[in-house]
Amino acid sequence: MKRSEFIKRLGIAASGAAVAPSILPSGYLFAATGGPSVPHVVICLLAGGVRNRESVEQAEGNLMPHLFAEIGSAVRQIAPPPLQHQGTLYQNFRYARGPVLHAAAQVAVLSGHYPSAPRSTTTAVTPTAFALLHRHRPAASAWWLPGAPVSGAARGSSGHPHYGVRFRVDVPPVAFSPATGTVPTPDEQNLARAKAIIRQQRPNLLVVHLQDMDAAHFSYARYRTALQIADRGVAQLWRTIQATPGMTDNTVLFVLPDHGRDRQPNAIPDASGRFGLDHTDGDTEEGTSRDIFCLVLGPERIVVQDQVIAETRGESIDLLPTLVQLWGIERALPRDLHFPGRSLQEALVARQ
User: Fold this and answer.
1) Which of 247, 203, 255, 245 is nearest to 87 (CA)?
2) Contact 94, 312 (CB under 8 A)
3) Alpha helices in the chain, H assignment, sequence order
4) How many contiguous H segments (helices) and E segments (strands) does the chain have?
5) Residue 341 neighbours by CB distance under 10 Å
6) 20 to 30 Å CA-CA from 41: which of 35, 111, 184, 264?
7) Which residues of 215-254 are buried (b: 16+ CB within 10 A; e: fewer)?
8) Which residues contact 158 (CB under 8 A, 6 or more apart)?
9) Tens-digit pLDDT profile for residues 167-220
């Protein structure tokens, strides 16, 4: 099915800026240049802000059992086993600098740099993952499913002379139906679109935003529900990847929040009497809104399996250098292009 026809079926308006994929004779999209380790990458960004307390720390029980093993349990879950066993879990990842705002934190993940102020999110210093892929792998298929209008920086338009407007990703806002009764939530709708793209398009890069957990500002109950939906949805996404020819054992999946949420609740109660959670304490001594996790899943030849990194290690800006390594484009980058982050080497199997 042609990309334009497929987009219409998804109900997504797009400008057709991305190039349709073509497969090289080897069967892989990427030609050998020291070779990428993996031809497919999916990033699931929990873009509504998730606190470690309710996720990896399991302070209120394991709300995300499809992703995380139960803390303190010596019994390994049999069916289905949590996804963390199929990769590396960073329990104490960081969104270390920049405004603790969704747009700014998402720019950090996709561009590998921390915006210095909210308005600086309109132009990135370094190119985003989309721009890098489109410039250095022009036959690649890239898809983006944001959950809300996104900034120019996140779309890939950067101030770097080698990556300009023509490498940006034009993604108009997607219309979501409000969740009522049997109508899926916006996150469930985005997950359904993502699974359709995986099955029919086999993307080389797919970025999926889940944002329903931002209801935490005014409803702790809805925040918990959104975490559970994300947990089930990511597991279904991974099963879809493993059931799709060409992506089976050829895909690395990153799952991480854009930023955390405050240690202390706000003054807005929900119907159950629980108070909401903002994200304003990032620069205080006891703040938790910069504390996140990162789960890296992939085949055992690429990603270290069943590894938990408990100490504070890794930052949001480290994803982009990791993608550069996975795509094998290190030597193709301009000499003056530098990323402040580092590749997540401890999660990746060393090349022979």
Assistant:
1) 255
2) yes
3) 3-10, 102-111, 129-136, 152-155, 186-201, 220-242, 319-327
4) 7, 7
5) 20
6) 184
7) bbbbbbebbbbbbebbbbbbbbbbebbeebeebeebbbbb
8) 111, 123, 124, 125, 126, 127, 128, 131, 164
9) 766 554 555 566 556 678 999 999 999 999 999 999 999 999 999 999 999 999
